[in-house]
Specification:
Belongs to the UPF0597 family. This is UPF0597 protein SAMN03080606_01566. One of its GO terms (biological process) is L-cysteine catabolic process to pyruvate. GO terms for molecular function: L-cysteine desulfhydrase activity. By secondary structure, the chain is an alpha+beta fold. It has two domains: 149 residues, 60s Ribosomal Protein L30, Chain: A (2-Layer Sandwich); 250 residues, 2-methylcitrate dehydratase PrpD. It is built from 17 helices and ten strands. The strands form three sheets. It has a six-stranded mixed sheet with strand order 5-2-6-7-8-9. The protein has a two-stranded antiparallel sheet with strand order 1-10. Helix 8 packs across helix 9, helix 10 packs antiparallel against helix 11 and helix 14 runs antiparallel to helix 15. It is globular, with a radius of gyration of 21 Å.
Length: 438
């Protein structure tokens, strides 16, 4: 397969719409699938087992359109009203009646959530029991990737032993040089990549919603207000921070609006796309160039996450999507290969220590910080100011720097466990009782 075709295939697979944070939505999707397999509507219990990373990212995030947070309400909602054929947009048609039924299901005590003792980053297992029947569903590796289906002891599908991370992708892309990938994207005909603009319009709409109302933490709304007051300048960087944070405010508070995700994360999609929207506001970029910049941003995000994992102890919005946005901005500013490689080193040398402590309204601040770092890194790289090799994790080549980032993330696995313990201690009592590892 030609490299250009491979890139387009990966973009079509990894850049998809999602409603709500992908971790609770994936739990809802698994419950909807299990219900589809089960004939008996009189449910006795729903057992949900998730990996520590899924639990971490679903603990405190809003679930649209319930005004509730956490995985239990997502599980109940998926069972009551989810349609698995809609994929990660299955909560789109949820109405007040389904929300009330889901809350009643939670109150009945039939929904049980526990953490699975697994090294998998993305793992969701749902077991439904009725008086006469049972169903079991497992999602692994990717938020909408069903690897195991079972009904009444009969195995319908079993792909549990397949390699999880990136198993749907041709991993040859992630072994290539960044410069070769950028050059290939430059050669892709506009008609083959024009679909990238859908995500630009979609995420811009979400951002505009966050600028009109004080929602979530109100990070974007507050930045916008201070730009209008003249306290902050109306420049590219502040607009990029404002838009990205505003969209995160909307998404993390659980409003029922679709966002274009990137590599399994809505917030990654916001970070990868909205700085490019802000650049276009200021400099009016032609559609063909916009589409290619968006493709670069998403592909670099996917490239880095192939090394650190879809869910990581590191903030993917910063080290992966933020880096993708930085590459796109550098390219839009006329950057050549050396500048693009330099901007990656600059971002990773700046915010590689940003940890992920779960999805929540405070993510808007991290997205704002990531965008600020991306633009600063781009300006420095264009001026040939790059962190030298040997400084921290920065290696001679950009590819080896990304491999060092992987080593860093693996070395921080203990930190991930500590973060989870802290989060459980502060919030788990409010979202799930009698939590245990299984």
């Amino acid at each position: 397969m030609k490299l250009e075709d491979l890139i387009v295939d990966i973009l079509k697979m990894e850049v998809v719409p999602a409603i709500g944070c992908t971790e609770p939505v994936a739990v809802a999707l698994a419950c909807a699938k299990a219900k589809e397999l089960l004939n008996d509507k009189e449910i006795a219990s729903i057992e949900v087992l998730v990996s520590p990373n899924i639990f971490k990212n679903g603990l405190a995030v809003g679930v649209p359109p319930t005004k509730e947070v956490g995985l239990p309400i997502a599980a109940a909602l998926g069972f009551v009203g989810g349609s698995c054929e809609k994929g990660l947009q299955l909560l789109e048609g949820i109405e007040k009646k389904e929300i009330e039924l889901a809350k009643a299901l939670l109150d009945s005590g039939k929904v049980k959530l526990n953490i699975k003792n697994t090294n998998e980053k993305v793992y969701i297992e749902v077991i439904l029991y009725s008086a006469k029947d049972s169903a079991r569903v497992i999602i692994k590796g990717k938020h909408n990737n069903f690897v195991y289906l079972e009904r009444q002891g009969h195995i319908i599908e079993d792909r549990l032993m397949e390699n999880d991370e990136g198993m749907e992708n041709d991993n040859s892309l992630y072994k290539m040089k960044i410069s070769s990938i950028v050059e290939a994207i430059e050669k892709i005909p506009h008609k083959s990549i024009a679909f990238m603009l859908e995500g630009l319009y979609m995420n811009e709409k979400v951002a505009m919603e966050g600028l009109q109302k004080n929602i979530g933490m109100g990070v974007g709304y507050t930045l916008y207000k201070n730009i209008r007051k003249g306290i902050l300048s109306d420049d590219f960087m502040n607009n990029a921070k404002m838009l990205t944070a505003a969209a995160s405010d909307v998404r993390m508070s659980g409003l029922k609006l679709p966002v274009m995700s990137s590599n399994g994360s809505g917030n990654n999609g916001l970070t990868a796309i909205l700085p490019i929207v802000a650049y276009n506001w200021k400099f009016n970029v032609p559609d063909e160039k916009l589409a290619k910049a968006l493709a670069m941003s998403h592909i670099i995000n996917s490239y880095i996450k192939n090394y650190i994992g879809r869910l990581s102890v590191l903030c993917g919005c910063g080290v992966a999507a933020g880096t993708g946005a930085a590459v796109a901005i550098t390219w839009l500013m006329g950057g050549k290969t050396s500048h693009i490689e330099g901007v990656i080193k600059n971002v990773l040398g700046d915010i590689s220590g940003m940890v992920c402590d779960g999805a929540k309204v405070g993510c808007a601040l991290k997205l704002s910080t990531s965008v600020s770092s991306a633009i600063q890194a781009a300006l420095l790289a264009i001026d040939n100011q790059v962190i030298p090799a040997g400084n921290g994790i920065i290696a001679e080549t950009v590819e080896d720097t990304i491999k060092n980032l992987k080593i860093l993330s693996e070395g921080m696995n203990g930190a991930d466990e500590v973060i989870l313990q802290v989060m459980q201690g502060m919030q788990a009592a409010r979202t799930v009782k009698n939590l245990k590892f299984l």
